[in-house]
Design goal:
The chain has 289 residues and is of the alpha/beta class. It has 10 helices and 9 strands. It folds into 2 domains: 129 residues, Rossmann fold, CATH 3.40.50.720; 127 residues, NAD(P)-binding Rossmann-like Domain (Rossmann fold), CATH 3.40.50. The strands form 2 sheets. Strands 2-1-3-4-5 form a 5-stranded parallel beta sheet. Strands 6-7-8-9 form a 4-stranded parallel beta sheet. It holds the Pfam family 2-Hacid_dh.
Length: 289
């Protein structure tokens, strides 16, 4: 096992709330630096990194999404200023809109999300939005486990449009990776009279196009926990009785918040001390330093 004595972690965001004992142990293993709120503003943070204010730290730790995002997106403007010693970014949240994965990968940084912690709560929300649907297809994650796919009698489709054409209800559960997935042309591929649920990211969907197919009846109903222009909701959805709306709170349970904190700490510890993160998003893309 690698000694943790020389590893430094940059903690961006407010204090730990749900796992004080675990954080105490975490802090005993690593040197923790926690910038103040003012230091986390984008221009100030970039300048501090340029000035090496926090030295050669090895990890970035963001334990919850309500804070720690003051600097905006971790992109080509920001990431190159991280010290060459920084090799992991462990964050709360299942999605990673704020993280430019190709840029982090290019600079040799493994990004770990918190999807494992929110899966149950998000699944509950998806089921609530689809409660009036009699059948569902498109269990994409099962492709990673052929035995499980066979057990639940799921069918994997190589072509997304082929799956959309036969699905009674489509549940969108994929990260945003820079472009819309559900566009006007793609909505036309949906089975007539089907339902659509989005518990992923609102930016994946062309909402104006979704309004059109809902009004035409091609899509019978929609359930949306996430929205294209959050915190704003498309005004047309608010007028529709065939649209159920929640405010991006699918992962808002206590268990999820606590899990985000603990999983981020566990990812950093596993990566720095054992050499392998628990929930890496880009392990297959990271370039060696």
């Amino acid at each position: 096992m690698v000694s943790s004595a020389h590893f430094t972690v940059l903690h961006i965001g407010n204090d730990i709330k749900y796992n004080p004992d675990l954080y105490k142990t975490f802090s005993s293993k690593f040197t923790i630096i926690q910038p103040w709120l003012e230091e986390r503003q984008r221009a100030t943070l970039i300048q501090a990194l340029k000035d090496k204010k926090w030295g050669d730290f090895h990890a970035v730790f963001r334990p919850f999404w309500n804070s720690g995002g003051e600097m905006g997106r971790w992109d080509e403007e920001l990431v190159p200023h991280l010290p060459p010693t920084c090799s992991i970014f462990a964050s709360a949240g299942a999605g990673y809109d704020w993280a430019d994965i190709p840029t982090l990968s290019k600079h040799g940084i493994t990004y770990c999300n918190g999807a494992r912690a929110s899966s149950e709560a998000v699944a509950d929300m998806a089921l609530w939005h689809t409660s009036v649907t009699q059948s569902r297809r498109g269990l994409g994650a099962l492709r990673k486990d052929k035995a499980l796919e066979d057990e639940v009698k799921a069918t994997f489709y190589e072509d997304l449009d082929d799956m959309l054409a036969v699905s009674d209800c489509v549940v969108l559960a994929t990260p945003f990776f820079g472009e819309k997935l559900i566009t006007g042309p793609r909505l036309s591929k949906f089975k007539k009279g089907s339902r659509f649920v989005n518990i992923a990211r609102g930016t994946l969907v062309d909402e104006n196009a979704l309004v059109d197919v809902l009004k035409s009846g091609h899509i019978f109903a929609a359930g949306l926990d996430v929205h294209e222009n959050e915190p704003h909701v498309h005004p047309e959805f608010c007028k529709m009785r065939n649209v159920s709306l929640t405010c991006h709170n699918a992962g808002g349970s206590w268990d999820t918040a606590s899990g985000f904190e603990s999983l981020a700490m566990q990812n950093i510890e596993a990566f720095l001390l054992e050499g392998k993160a628990l929930t890496p998003v880009n392990a297959h893309l990271v370039q060696k330093k």
